Automatic annotation (TrEMBL), chains A, B:
It comes from Marinobacterium zhoushanense. InterPro entries: Aminotransferase_I/II_large, HTH_trans_reg/aminotransferase, PyrdxlP-dep_Trfase, PyrdxlP-dep_Trfase_major, PyrdxlP-dep_Trfase_small, Tscrpt_reg_HTH_GntR, WH-like_DNA-bd_sf, WH_DNA-bd_sf. Pfam families: Aminotran_1_2 (PF00155), GntR (PF00392). This is GntR family transcriptional regulator. The lineage of its organism: Bacteria, Pseudomonadati, Pseudomonadota, Gammaproteobacteria, Oceanospirillales. SUPFAM superfamilies: PLP-dependent transferases (SSF53383), Winged helix' DNA-binding domain (SSF46785). CDD domains: AAT_like (cd00609), WHTH_GntR (cd07377).
Amino acid sequence: MKLYEELAESLRQRIEQGFYAGGDRMPSIRTLVREHGVSVTTAQEAYRQLEDAGLVESRPKSGYFARVRCSTPELPRVGRPVRRPIEVSKWEDVLNMLGAETPSKVFSLGHAMPDFTGPTLKPLLKLWSMQARRSDMRGLEYDSLKGTEELRTQVARLGNHSGCQLDPDELIITTGCQEALFCALRAVTQPGDVVAVDSPCFYGAMQAIKANDLRVMEIPTHAETGLSIEALELALEQWPIKAVLVTPTCNNPLGYTMPESRKRDLLLLAQRFDIAIIEDDIYGDLAYAWPRPRAIKAFDTDGRVLLCSSFSKTLAPGLRLGWIAPGRYRTEVIHNKFVSTAASSTLSQLAVAQFIAEGGYERHLRKMRAQYQRNRDLMVNWLEQHFPAGVRISFPQGGYLLWLEFASEVDCVELNRELSDTQFRIAPGVLFSASGKYRNCMRLNFVNGLDRQTEEALLTLAALIDQRYAKAG
Amino acid sequence: MKLYEELAESLRQRIEQGFYAGGDRMPSIRTLVREHGVSVTTAQEAYRQLEDAGLVESRPKSGYFARVRCSTPELPRVGRPVRRPIEVSKWEDVLNMLGAETPSKVFSLGHAMPDFTGPTLKPLLKLWSMQARRSDMRGLEYDSLKGTEELRTQVARLGNHSGCQLDPDELIITTGCQEALFCALRAVTQPGDVVAVDSPCFYGAMQAIKANDLRVMEIPTHAETGLSIEALELALEQWPIKAVLVTPTCNNPLGYTMPESRKRDLLLLAQRFDIAIIEDDIYGDLAYAWPRPRAIKAFDTDGRVLLCSSFSKTLAPGLRLGWIAPGRYRTEVIHNKFVSTAASSTLSQLAVAQFIAEGGYERHLRKMRAQYQRNRDLMVNWLEQHFPAGVRISFPQGGYLLWLEFASEVDCVELNRELSDTQFRIAPGVLFSASGKYRNCMRLNFVNGLDRQTEEALLTLAALIDQRYAKAG
Ligand SMILES: Cc1ncc(COP(=O)(O)O)c(C=O)c1O
Ligand SMILES: Cc1ncc(COP(=O)(O)O)c(C=O)c1O
């Protein structure tokens, strides 16, 4: 064990023993140097380790603090989705949530827009602006079908963080992760096929399933360990499933990360039944633990995993930049990419590639991981205090979304309707089910922690629940 | 008749009588004022009219010149495509042409990239750069599903030029015209259906047909008047066709614009057989005549026309901005747009909207129309002189693409293979057919007129044809 690791370890023990409570100031670098007889670099390195592990946070000009920690809350129950393949419905609800047809600004507690207002994203905007003024005007050209070499090279390099060996020449840049999922689905299925998904499941993926005339088999998930391998195995034995689509790392909406052993089990199962895995890793780089958890793709030996991701959650969705590492399905994916959009925006690719190459991406991630983890803790604590008794709360390991389960009488679709007099909206659980389940659940973002508007919205919601379901919980 | 119209008319007659040959200097504004006793404004307005009609061109600091005109060349023959619905093939050839897998820079005579190097596009880059630095960072947000209001408003306004009454709220912004076509096709068909197309037809549209498991019915076209209404009628009587996909204005690859009466006939036919029309208008604003020809959509009374277009040819393809006016198919189109890419790039929409609002788009168009028309004339003249006898050449009414038909023995796929030692490539006609027809044809761009590289490439090609097909022609 290196010296800084020993130091980090002893500090970690003291935190876990309650020596430092959440929010307490940790010893300064100077104190550590004096008391432990180590160098400044060693002390700093120790704190960096603890920061990566999510145990301390640094506050500018004030030093290190033990995190506001909260123990795992009462978790949502494992869902009981329909036990056979069904067609996806709910498009009307999605359309409603997206606010596509409502011109007025509403404040959505459930939307999934990251925070891009911080200083660490400013350099990206500057690069974007500069790229627009390149004298060769490359931003105006048709991009190559698979994307610019600059960005593919950087994405391949970032793949190391998730344990993936990506070849820039195999990668295909897409217009967001949505296009990656869409092309992946089309590459591995025919109309009428069945696709298994983790349930609850991102509505964009399910609507893509619907649009391609596929049926969905919803597999229950555990709020901490994700997709039930056992349930999937049963389903595979019973139904002619062609692919499984999962978000195993920093899941949307539950926030769990599947343990590595379960990721491996999932892969083994896919091999045994010879099906493809569409792995949505869009929130993976926002895992609070660093180095981040490995992707299923990291263990893929026969190219059956199609890894889909984007910069929409880590940087900004307006970029519309995603990618896919398509494994053995490259031919099909590239045809689908061509016919759906021909090429992606050249200029934003060049800007993002340069931003990553200059270290801006990793700097930004470090900051956002810390911010979102802090916000999670604040939010979970707050919800436990202010929300109706009996509420169950997921405990995300990354990202900025969590899942709330209320008593079974609570109807979130109805609540949303009642909120329509206010400017507030929620993302009801039904969006995440093919079959209208999860009515008593909702997705909640904690991007901005408990700012005034969020707190006001949450209090309005809590009051509404109390009033309408007085006996509930 | 207004004074400037009278003056324009008398000048027009003198040009048509050969008084001024192509390339001759026209009387200066001062001369007109003196000789005709009109005001400077009137003289200028007269020239502006003649310019819009494509009869004169202005050269900076040297005044007005009669255009290099050439009479209609020997036109390509009407094709005889397969007389039944078939599946689309040729993806390998398209992939090859797109150069997706070849890293080295090749010079393609057939590609369809517009000229974006001129000064009239500079303001767009500046606006783009400025938008990236907006303090509200709107460029980073998820755009609304249907696109920014700013851009939809401008696109609706531009619709007036093509005679279309577009409602900004009905329009949907897409990631290029390719996505518009893709969503349109998916909105009006089910797998297995038949779609009629004008043949030769843009390969991107045909590959989208292939990807959606549709079959294609190729309808012959005339090099001047476009799609054969008669042949389409016969096909409609015989086959269960669901939609017709056409590029009736400044067609790619032939360059024709269907006369308005034929556009109306096409619409009547679609009404009679109750099918949808997918109208690709991507080159429409580059018609040499101004005001530009009206779109079929202009006559649409029952919402059966899905108008698809983009800024890829008029401004720059790297923007990846298109749109669709989906008529009665809006619900289906918006679902397809959501599942394929969720949203389009926000920042470029804002930049383009501002560019249009400030008059930059129309300024740029005026310049490009004149440039492309001049280049057409130069190119057609040159081809008639230097190309093998018997070559047939289309005579585009807009855009920057033409179609060459060689003697039937000439095999353009083979020529491309033989060119592989050089840096030059052509776009063989087979790309534009579902069934491998048009081997003796190719598409040629005249974006840059006869610059040195283009002339060198064309001479290489002509020599190759002469050598290989000595007896041909
Ligand atoms: C799990 C998941 N996958 C994919 C997407 C779509 O991402 P993008 O905006 O990059 O298309 C989202 C966006 O909300 C998501 O949450
Ligand atoms: C006739 C036609 N339609 C559609 C497209 C696709 O356009 P975009 O680049 O805007 O997706 C092209 C591009 O070459 C085209 O020529």
